[in-house]
Amino acid sequence: MASGEEDGAVEEKETNNKKKRTKSSIATAWLTFYNIAMTAGWLVLALAMARYYLQKGTHKGVYRSIARTLKFFQTFAVLEVGHCAIGIVRTSVIVTGVQVCSRIFMVWFITNSIRQVQNQESVILFLVVWTVTEITRYSFYTFNLLNHLPYFIKWARYNLFIVMYPLGVIGELMTIYAALPYVRRSGMYSLRLPNKYNVSFDYYYFLIIVMLSYIPLFPQLYFHMLRQRRRVLHGEVIVEKDE
Questions:
Q1: Across the strands, what pairs with 201?
Q2: How far out from the chain centre does Cα 223 lie?
Q3: 121 is annotated as an active-site residue
């Protein structure tokens, strides 16, 4: 009788292990596909920006030429928050959420909505930074998932951000700052009293709060990456399988 119970327990354990391996294989396959697609998407953006500049000889109009592709791939990145939430990626939902949502906000509620800032040099600055960063990041995850990670990609992933991250923040802040006069004059996305909801919202002051929020958030995210850099480049185990 005891032997039968033990056999049943062994069979149940083997079944559970098979299910776990199947789920892990599906998750790895999906993450590999996702990261390849995102690498390709940002490569397309990089080539499109370079081709436009070489043909026109100016940065003006670059954003409009790549706007649809940028909006698609940057919005698609919201899936990364879901990856963290369901546990197929071992990284902080909060850290990933802040990074993804800030990007989506910059694309949809600043650059896309306020056409007057689209030709600002600061827009080109953060676009170039995002593009280099994302091509490096997604290719890193792709090769890591395939267990064939070239050292130069690993090196780029954990070194380029030291310069790129601050430059990207500067570009984003300068773009929001450039948008403030247009937001104030137009009253866009603002809700004035009196209204049937009896609430007010001023997008102009909201953007100022967003700019101020970079003060506490940027150091936290930056030092988080520095900690990851120390772990990886000193030969320690990588905590994140993907982001």
A1: 191
A2: 17
A3: no
Half-sphere exposure of 212 (CA within 13 A, CB side): 6
For the packed helices 62-76 and 121-145, what is the interaxial angle rounded to 10 degrees? 40
Maximum CA pair distance of the chain? 83
Tell me which amino acid residue 60 is.
Answer: K
pTM, to two decimals: 0.87
For residue 191, the cross-strand partners are 201
Q: Which of 165, 189, 214, 222 is catalytic?
A: 165
Centre a 10 Å sphere on the Cβ of residue 151 and count the other Cβ atoms it contains. 7
Q: Which of 80, 172, 203, 243 is catalytic?
A: 172
What does the pLDDT look like over 30-89, one tens digit per residue?
999 999 999 999 999 999 999 999 999 999 999 999 999 999 999 999 999 999 999 999
Catalytic, 165? Answer: yes
Query: Are 75 and 38 a contacting pair, CB within 8 Å?
Result: no
Neighbour tally for 22: CB within 10 Å: 10
Provide the sign of the torsion angle of the four alpha carbons 170, 171, 172, 177, taken in this order: positive
H-state helical runs in the chain: 2-56, 62-76, 79-86, 93-105, 121-145, 151-157, 161-186, 203-233
